[in-house]
Amino acid sequence: MQDIPTSGKSGDAKPHRSLFERLTALIAPEPDSRSELLTILHDAHERNLIDADALAMIEGVFQVSELCARDIMVPRAQMDVVDITKPIEEWLPMVLHTAHSRFPAIDGERDKVVGILMAKDLLRYYAEESFDIRSTLRTAVFIPESKRLNVLLSDFRAKHNHIAIVVDEYGGVAGLITIEDVLEQIVGDIEDEYDFDEEEDNILAIKAGEHGPRWRIKALTEIEQFNEELGTSLSSPDVDTIGGLVADHLGRMPHKGEMLDIGNLRFEVLRADARHIHVLLVEKLPSSPSEDALDS
């Protein structure tokens, strides 16, 4: 008597596919390249099968595998560092002002990074009479500029590290990168103290700076609205938003922390990722003849 195969009993049996699944496979075969896959995902978004946030995250995952540390790092010149050869009182105001949780500690020069200072460890400075700053430093992690972000993210997670010092081919410090910087390429900008409530205006006046009044401004603010609020005359034939204007002046997408002067306005990028500027800090500097350049 011939044995009758029983579904699910044989280890060699292929999973059963419904008629609908087989027809779908014939009509829409599996993508052969990343671009085809993205085309399918965009089509799924247009048909409301996935939302815009999910699509952006998937694109971010692809982008992380293509970018390297040099693409998103905070450049050396814009790093907030503590120089442990100087009295703590000299750089403590900077620590309080920037409000970072971690700072590269240097030994006189920016190329001599000797460790990472955790801001919370400074509490011991107020509690211990014989506080030794060097003994509080954590080991600094150094990575090459060419390190891929997906590999770096894996290392961050495996070693429970949150910050790395980026070095160039000659061993000099090129910048720094944090786990937040990498994650923002996938999930978009992570909320911080510079976030706006949805109901707040695009332009928010804040405490005046060293040179003059300051505002936190959403990058998608229209240039026309910006001019009305700040009494300026910025213009551009190529872009409509203030974030677009900043990127247009630089000729590229700026990094978080980057600064740019346009006329008597100083723009600092507070929030940005590889694709978008999100929030800008704008400070009005003392007027100068170069203010006329705003109209160009």
Model description:
It is a single chain. The chain is an alpha+beta fold and 296 residues long. The protein has 3 domains: 30-66; 71-187, CBS-domain (Roll), CATH 3.10.580; 203-295, 2-Layer Sandwich (Uridine Diphospho-n-acetylenolpyruvylglucosamine Reductase, domain 3), CATH 3.30.465.10. The protein is 33% helix and 20% strand. The protein is built from 11 helices and 12 strands. The strands form 3 sheets. A 5-stranded antiparallel beta sheet has the order 8-9-12-11-10, with helices on one face. A hairpin with a 6-residue loop joins β3 and β4. α3 (52-66) crosses α9. The relative contact order is 0.10.
Q: In the CATH hierarchy, what is the superfamily of the largest domain?
A: CBS-domain
Strand order of the largest sheet: 8-9-12-11-10
Give the helix/strand class: alpha+beta
CATH class label of the largest domain: Alpha Beta
SS element count, helices: 11
Distance between the termini: 92 Å
Shape: globular
Mean pLDDT: 81
Kindly report the oligomeric state of this protein: single chain
Could you provide a short overview of the structure?
This protein is α+β, with helices and mostly antiparallel strands and 296 residues long. It has helices spanning 19-27, 34-46, 52-66, 69-72, 88-98, 123-127, 133-136, 149-159, 179-187, 223-230, 242-250, and strands spanning 74-75, 82-83, 102-106, 113-118, 142-144, 163-167, 173-178, 203-206, 214-218, 259-262, 265-272, 277-284. α3 (52-66) packs across α9.
